[in-house]
Each structure stands twice: as C-alpha cells, then as structure tokens.
Amino acid sequence: MTNDEPDPQDHDCAVDRVDAGVEIIEPRDVPLGGPRAMTVRRTLPSRQRSLIGPFCFADHYGPDAVSASGGMDVPPHPHTGLQTVTWLFEGRVLHQDAVGSVQEVRPGQLNLMTAGHGICHSEEGTVRRFPDQDTLHGVQLWTALPEATRHGERAFEHVADVPTVTVDGAEVQVFMGSLGGVTSPARADTPLVAAQVDVPAGAHVRLPLEPAFEHGVLLDVGNLTVAGHHVASAELAYLAPGRDHVELAAGAAGARLVLLGGAPFTEDILMWWNFVGRSHEEIVAARDEWQAAVRGEAHGVARFGQVTGYPGPPLPAPELPHVRLRPRSRL
C-alpha cells in the first residue's frame, strides 16, 4: 500500500527512552486514492511515536463496502528500505510486483514484500478484480530494514498457512516472528512479532510477551482493555519493553486485535512518502530514480523494476518540500 498523502512528512526515528506504562495512540483518517477512496486509519507514524520495534507504518481499514468506495486500487508505486506486510480480516487483494509475483491474499494468509534497494508493486481489492467481493477489511504494516539488508535484493513471499496457537481460549495467528511457542516461516530481518488475536466474549487472556520487545496492540473490533486500560476500535496501545505478558480482557462481544512489536530499532531512519532511508540525499535520489522509472528510463527501471499486469500507469511521486528533510524525534 502506498502513502497517498499529498504532502507526506519526513520522519527521523531515533530510539529514545520511554517510561513503563500504556500509551494510547489515536488514529487519523487518510483517504487512499481520490474523493471516493477507501479511508484508512493510520496510527504509525504518529505525533507520539514513529516506531514500535521495526514497525514504522500501520494502516487499518474496513470493513469497507467495495461497491460504494471502489475498494483498494493502488497503481504501481515504489518502496525502498522496508518490508510491506499485508494481513486481511475479510476480502481479497491481488498483489503484483517487479519480481514477477502475481499473488492473491485472503484472510489467514500473509503477503510479505521486501523492498531492499528498490521495488515497485500494485494492490487491487476491487470489484473489477473480484466481482463477487463485497467487503475489504484488514491491516497494512511496514517494517524498517536494518543497515545490513536495506540495500539488498527485492523479494516477495506468500505464507498460505500461518501457525496458530491457543492462549487462555484466545486464538492467536502468528504471521511474523514467534509467540506462544510457534514461529512464522516469514522472513524477519530484526527480532519482531506480529499476530492476530481473537479473544472470546468475556475472556481474560494472559498473553506472553518477549520482555526485550516493545509492543503495540491495535484493536480491530470489539471491546477491550489492555493492562487495565480501555482501548477503542482502531486505537493502538503502546507497551514499553520490560513486560513478560500483557493482560487482555474482552467485553460481551469479544475482541479481535493485532499485536505487533520487536526489539527497539537502534538505527535512525528517515521516512518520506514510500521511501525509508537514512538521509535527505537518499530520499531525493530515490524519488528522482522513481520518476525516471515512471517515464520508462532504463536507470530508473533498473532500480525499481516494472509491474506488467496492472491496467494503468504507475503512480508519480509527490513533490518534495522546498526545504531539507529534517530529522524528527522518535517520540
């Protein structure tokens, strides 16, 4: 998924000390691609926090009536220095990329794309692609790649069956990292975890955590308290490192949430639009080469590749601000 904000902000994400406790991050609405667009609810990056572990971007969307909004229709667009993590609750999305992947993803399956030095892809969850699709509902996450792998080759993987474990009656689908004694086969370049947790009505769940990790609990639906703090739908509850578990309590309707987290990311990163880099110069170079790829110029295509199956042109980059992209604190 692309960041469709017309004036994307830069984010420099350094690791600072945080106090123990629960911090609630409220979402902001971002339209995805035009006046009739599907709206996503974004909690990362936010004014309070830019990273949770390596996770630097979190969009939550739906349940969206595809026939009314048009669904998700994101033309070919670039990424650098990150992984895109696609996880659905309802519906289907077709992913196509410069590696040559053409992969539909459904609920309970993972699409994971590693940008490395550069990649482009498209995403479609529309009536045009899926005439019988009524609803689209899920999350899109990005992880920042560390220095050791961020200049590497682009790659894509699809995990059709993620491992599942039951914890105090809650079903836990671990789509990245390890939790509750099970481990996802998906690539992870830094220590991390991501899982869907379905908590039954009225249940109290003691969910094990890695104490070295910081975590976020993103509530999809239902009524939930996290470590005694009420969390509303689409809000993200931040948990600082040092916990070996978290207490989750669901209301009468139960709750569905996504747990994400990892070891605090120790590198400063600069985010702008769909690029994760380390400096102003890197971002400018990535934008210039993507614009060259949009024009079909060889050096741009060499960096980002091409998507051949999307019925339309690639998405041009927005204009850079007329000032140097400046570092921004993690908090």
Automatic annotation (TrEMBL):
- GO MF assignments: metal ion binding
Question: Which residues does UniProt call coiled coil?
Answer: none
Please name the InterPro entries in this protein's record. Answer: Pirin, Pirin_C_dom, Pirin_N_dom, RmlC-like_jellyroll, RmlC_Cupin_sf
Q: State the signal peptide span.
A: none
- Pirin N-terminal domain spans which residues? 39-142
Q: Which CDD domains match?
A: cupin_pirin_C, cupin_pirin_N
Which keywords, in A-to-Z order, does the entry hold? Iron, Metal-binding
Question: Is Metal-binding one of the keywords UniProt gives this record?
Answer: yes
Q: Tell me yes or no: is Phosphoprotein among this UniProt entry's keywords.
A: no
What this protein needs as a cofactor is:
Fe cation
Q: Which residues form the Pirin C-terminal domain?
A: 196-293
Question: Which residues are noted in the entry as Fe cation-binding?
Answer: 77, 79, 121, 123
As to how many cofactors bind and how, the note says: Binds 1 Fe cation per subunit.
Q: Which family does it belong to?
A: Belongs to the pirin family.
Task: Name it.
Answer: Pirin
